[in-house]
User: What shape does this take?
Amino acid sequence: MTTPHSWKDAMRELAARDAVIRNLVKRFDGLALGSRGDAFQTLARAIVGQQISVKAAHSVWNRLTAELQVVTPATVHGVDNQRLRACGLSDRKAGYLLDLAARFHSGALDARKWRQLDDEALIAELVQVKGIGRWTAEMFLIFHMTRPDVLPLDDIGLQRAMSLHYNNGRPLSKLKMRKIGNNWAPWRTVATWYMWRSLDPVPVEY
Assistant: This one.
């Protein structure tokens, strides 16, 4: 796992301007976001993790890895849908994973080109793929591209954490979430990661 070079600078700046983040930085000293460096696996993990708990997603992914030995476009491409479903994937997610593998396998998706795209342009490209919506694309920006300023407003964990820390546990509108997040720019990815940690000390990985 590779940690972004800017992580320490981001921690210092966020801690200086936000008391909540400052306490979380102290609490989770030594932990940081990590990238696996594998575009296909990051997207595949994000698809597996859609709308289920982190624990359940880990379980499905481990069963998938046991079945295929290694999860790559080549090993997933052409696999029978039923084999994927036996690993705990829904029929829909199995279809999404097969489509993703086919696009990588054929070269229709070329991750080498994505470094040149800004966040919104890359999100627009990714959401053209079956099963990838804005949330999944944002997870890819965070966990693979390690883009520093992503604020995934649709993420349930972020919504929960922000309501707990900034509104006494009461729900926050996305407008208010964005306003709080503006104080974190240009390090909103880092702040989001600390919000997640406040709910679950085990780092989320895709």
